[in-house]
Amino acid sequence: MKKWLKISFSLCLIAILIIPLAACNKEEVTKVRIAEVTRSIFYAPQYVAIEKGFFEEEGLDVELTTTWGGDKTMTALVSDGADVALVGSETSIYVYAQGTSDPVINFAQLTQTDGTFLVARNKIDNFSWDQLKGSTFLGQRKGGMPQMVGEYVLKQHGIDPQNDLNLIQNVDFGNIPSAFASGTGDFVQLFEPTASVFEKEGVGHIVASFGTESGKVPYTTFMAKESFMKDNEETVEKFTRAIYKAQQWVQENSTEEIAKVVQPYFEDTELDIIEMVVDRYKSQGSFADNPILDKEEWENLQNIMDEAGELPKRVDHGTLVNTSIAENVMK
């Protein structure tokens, strides 16, 4: 009986010690609200960070919201509707040029190339860029990164988008695929998985990658307001560490494994298509293998914007990019 009492007392004592500890651990969890510009397989490492528990390992509880558009994403961020935004780095330049007192800082890069592909209506065995001359080209919305990169690549191949093509840019982003499927355009600039789905269904044929042609550029980056980063230094570092873990995991694992992990975010897309898209992005180096946004990429971004006539002002790398956090987590 005495032995049983001792055991019971010990168990009670353990419970008394554990319960407050569990409560403390729960209190240490920090919520971070992410606004992503769109839902895309292009952002696979972000979904890996969530599904593999890398954010949770850092004591972060992330709430992911898709805001559907760069302007809406930045509005959510600057109005404190989100803590962190995943969006194109050009948006931070637009906000800065408007004279904000609390600039948006890029602190962790997720993708490092354009994510669109050139899709031809008819199958072309030996594609060359000059075959676009005189064609009807269904392009992306004017002022957005896809359109700017698209025109930049065309010019690199000696094509004047305004004079050598019948260029269509008045179709809303969400309606571009259906417009092409219904017969508009000889060529179209599309994101995945639409490009691969069209190819599988025979609607079109992928003939080139704008990401490969344009080189490295900070296409989508995690960013936050400067005030948030100053007030939450530890949280931002933990966030960046989780992303870096995911980036490493993506580099080290097969496309099949990556596709299975991110599949819950794309329930309407068949697994074989997800695998195909992941493989295409991974093989062309679209997924950044670390969170550092370097000066060369930043300058390439501004050159592309300038070429398109959309750069409001040139901004030094150190003004809107913080690499010290990424560098610390990589040590």
Automatic annotation (TrEMBL):
Subcellular location: Periplasm
Record's signal peptide: 1-22
Keywords: Signal
Classification via Pfam families: NMT1_2
Major location (coarse): periplasm
Gene3D superfamilies: Periplasmic binding protein-like II
Keyword Signal listed: yes
Family: Belongs to the bacterial solute-binding protein SsuA/TauA family.
Name by which UniProt lists this protein: ABC transporter substrate-binding protein
UniProt organism field: Robertmurraya mangrovi
Upper taxonomic lineage: Bacteria, Bacillati, Bacillota, Bacilli, Bacillales
